[in-house]
Design the sequence.
């Protein structure tokens, strides 16, 4: 059944599902975004090299493998026009595989993992899991090892729950320890051959010798596909909706929304789920340095770059909390968002969500002009809620900013739920955001 939405519908969800299946690690998120941008005519730039930029053309640059900046330069762009920015993140909460991970006992092999970000542990139990990430390989150049990214794809792992017969009060609440309860089952033990089982698996997939693998950064991921749920396909449920919904909407908007003046920018950061304070996270000078480089390559001076702060604007695009009708007391009595009624404008006096009334007014005017549905969200005053990269990024590139995103259920679970029509609303707004000449 076709879904009525601002973007014409199911095609947007189909693109999102393709992204969900490709973006199984932060490195794969960047790879998937780069593939989409290249297909749309964006030219690839390389970090650490000189850039030759031309007005009227579009570019993208992967940064440290798990961050990406893409931008379109208006044909009549001048220094005073500034930047129109959409920022999201490509990482997700879950588990990272430790070095020498095999743990063999009682005939089973499990993998030693550590937590990454705020995880809903229970949601990861009894699911088909795979692993993906970056592999660093031995090379002839000591200061330049080889790097490949790899998706194992197969459902090779699972984290089994305990039978209710053996813990009859489990429905009253169970604490799950990461070092004992959350280690994924990998296989049956067969003696000494299991000592480097995971390393050998990687080497076989990459067709390299195990001894040539120096290190890796691998995360587990839920290998399930997304699906429509509910009457008339009202909902869409899938892994990694936080924050691939935002990445998808921004990719769609940047490739469609053109303007003759200024520079439109998309940035996908890494490490948002653990605080953003890394070289490829929002809490770094990297993004501001890239924007300054764009201005220098266009012939603008440092003073012009600083003056552009006043003319620039950023959308921090990340998911919001949709109202769960079973837990209504956790939400503000008035400012609560329902799936299927448009994207969320998130506000917090603590600035965990960037609250700038002027920018929020701009968002509302664009939506009203385009008949795009939106809602406002504020946390319950006794609930801490979450935060985004918006205020962090704006501290390093001080421009006007607002927090927006699709409301979802079960945020930070291994599988999340959204309103199927809301992706179209977010994409439509971001496209208009990039298009408005101002």
Sequence:
């Amino acid at each position: 059944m076709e879904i009525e939405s601002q973007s014409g519908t199911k095609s947007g969800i189909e693109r999102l599902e393709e992204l969900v299946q490709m973006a199984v690690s932060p490195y794969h998120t960047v790879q998937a975004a780069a593939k989409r941008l290249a297909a749309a005519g964006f030219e690839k730039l390389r970090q650490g090299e000189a850039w030759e930029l031309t007005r009227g053309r579009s570019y993208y640059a992967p940064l440290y493998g798990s961050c990406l900046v893409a931008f379109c330069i208006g044909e009549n762009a001048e220094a005073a026009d500034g930047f129109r920015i959409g920022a999201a993140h490509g990482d997700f909460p879950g588990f990272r595989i430790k070095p020498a991970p095999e743990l063999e006992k009682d005939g089973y092999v499990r993998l030693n993992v550590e937590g990454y970000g705020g995880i809903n542990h229970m949601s990861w139990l009894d699911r088909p899991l795979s692993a993906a990430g970056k592999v660093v390989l031995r090379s002839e150049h000591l200061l330049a090892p080889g790097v490949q990214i790899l998706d194992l794809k197969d459902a090779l792992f699972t984290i089994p729950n305990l039978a209710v017969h053996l813990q009859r009060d489990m429905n009253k609440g169970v604490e799950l320890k990461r070092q004992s309860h959350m280690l994924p089952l990998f296989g049956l033990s067969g003696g000494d051959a299991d000592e480097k089982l995971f390393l050998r698996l990687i080497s076989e997939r990459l067709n390299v010798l195990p001894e040539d693998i120096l290190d890796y950064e691998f995360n587990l991921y839920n290998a399930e596909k997304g699906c429509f749920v509910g009457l008339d396909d009202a909902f869409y449920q899938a892994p990694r909706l936080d924050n691939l919904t935002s990445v998808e909407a921004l990719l769609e908007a940047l490739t469609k929304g053109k303007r003759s003046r200024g520079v439109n920018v998309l940035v996908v950061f890494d490490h948002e789920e653990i605080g953003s304070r890394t070289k490829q996270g929002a809490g770094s000078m990297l993004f501001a340095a890239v924007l300054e480089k764009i201005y220098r390559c266009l012939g603008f001076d440092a003073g012009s770059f600083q003056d552009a702060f006043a003319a620039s604007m950023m959308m921090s695009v990340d998911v919001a909390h949709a109202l769960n009708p079973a837990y209504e007391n956790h939400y503000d009595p008035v400012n609560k968002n329902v799936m299927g009624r448009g994207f969320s404008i998130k506000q917090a006096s603590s600035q965990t969500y960037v609250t700038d009334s002027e920018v929020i007014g701009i968002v509302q005017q664009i939506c009203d002009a385009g008949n795009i549905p939106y809602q406002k969200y504020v946390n319950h005053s006794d609930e801490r809620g979450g935060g985004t990269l918006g205020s962090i990024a704006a501290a390093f590139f001080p421009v006007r900013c607002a927090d927006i995103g699709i409301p979802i259920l079960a945020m930070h679970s291994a599988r999340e739920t959204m309103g199927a029509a809301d992706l179209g609303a977010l994409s439509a707004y971001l496209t208009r955001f990039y298009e408005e000449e101002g």
